[in-house]
């Protein structure tokens, strides 16, 4: 969507500042589209974009919002106008008025997952060794290069799953009518200019910072590290326990929480 908006497929995501899901997007959803707005040009060849994923029409059509910093090649996107932050977004056929673009951005920034505060202690964490395969590296075959964003997100998801006990535990949750879903991602970035070799091992570090909303929500910090300790990527993630029926937040059971914390303590 951002490549179409900018008009060039070489635009690169530098950092996803905030990504928040408001409701699930079903596979094969009809009338699915992503709107993109240029908010500012904070640096030369850098643009800050707001993206909105919509499905259907009307007041409930927004399913996700994303604030993303993008790098542009020289001469690309210069003719794309900056949107007025005071302008109101409009739902098409209904004409229902929404908040201004500036208010939408402010709302997206509210509730972001942040690191530990003064005196705050984490619940615990895991460090997992994972191999880098050739298709995970953005480089000619066999050469060193940065990890792809897709590969990083897959490694982050897999390491979070280990905190809760792996795929079998996810399946058990689903059989009880519960889902563990990502509610938002904050400050997701790949380190600029940091490469890794295909076949090398990396460390996936996942830390459970805190719980929220009566153990219905869980704040994580995640990092990928090379063997020399150099960071390849990082992100803050909000994981939510919700009903598979209506999406309402549901607290996890006491015995489940004890299993999670025991697993982290053992690590």
Would you kindly provide a brief summary of this structure?
The chain is of the alpha+beta class and 267 residues long.
Count of strand segments? 11
Helix content: 10-25%
Number of helices: 5
> What is the beta-strand fraction?
35-45%
**Spatial strand arrangement across the major sheet:** 2-3-4-1-8-11-10-9-7
Radius of gyration: 20 Å
What's the main sheet like? 9 strands, antiparallel
Element order, helices and strands? HEEEEEEHEHHEEEEH
- SS-based structural class? alpha+beta
Mean pLDDT comes to: 92
List low-confidence stretches.
Answer: none
Distance between the termini: 41 Å
Shape: globular
State the main characteristics:
267 residues; alpha+beta; 9-stranded antiparallel β-sheet
Tell me about this structure.
- 25% of the residues are buried.
- Helix content is 19%, strand content 39%.
- The protein is globular.
- It is an alpha+beta fold.
- The termini are far apart.
- The protein has helices at residues 2-6, 101-109, 149-163, 167-175, 254-266, and strands spanning 12-21, 32-43, 46-55, 62-71, 88-90, 97-100, 124-131, 178-190, 201-212, 217-225, 231-243.
């Amino acid at each position: 969507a951002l490549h179409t908006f900018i008009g060039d497929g070489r635009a690169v995501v530098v950092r996803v500042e905030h990504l928040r899901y408001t409701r699930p997007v079903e596979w094969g959803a009809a009338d699915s589209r992503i709107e993109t707005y240029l908010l500012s040009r904070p640096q030369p060849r850098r643009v800050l974009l707001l993206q909105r994923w919509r499905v259907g029409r009307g007041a409930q059509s927004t399913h996700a919002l994303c604030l993303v910093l993008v790098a542009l090649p020289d001469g690309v996107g210069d003719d794309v106008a900056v949107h007025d932050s005071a302008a109101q977004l409009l739902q098409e056929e209904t004409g229902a008025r929404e908040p201004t673009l500036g208010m939408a951005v402010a709302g997206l920034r509210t509730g972001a997952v942040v690191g530990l505060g003064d005196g705050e202690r984490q619940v615990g964490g895991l460090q997992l060794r994972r191999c880098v395969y050739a298709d995970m590296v953005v480089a000619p075959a066999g050469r060193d290069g940065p990890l792809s964003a897709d590969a990083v997100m897959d490694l982050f998801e897999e390491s979070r799953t280990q905190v809760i006990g792996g795929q079998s535990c996810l399946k058990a949750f689903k059989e009880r009518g519960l889902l563990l879903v990502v509610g938002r991602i904050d400050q997701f970035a790949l380190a600029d200019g940091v490469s890794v070799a295909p076949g090398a091992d990396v460390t996936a570090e996942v830390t459970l910072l805190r719980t929220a909303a009566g153990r219905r929500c869980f704040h994580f910090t995640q990092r990928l590290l090379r063997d020399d300790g150099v960071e390849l990527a990082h992100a803050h993630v909000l994981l939510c326990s919700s009903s598979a029926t209506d999406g309402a937040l549901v607290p996890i059971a006491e015995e489940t929480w004890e299993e999670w914390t025991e697993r982290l303590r053992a690590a």
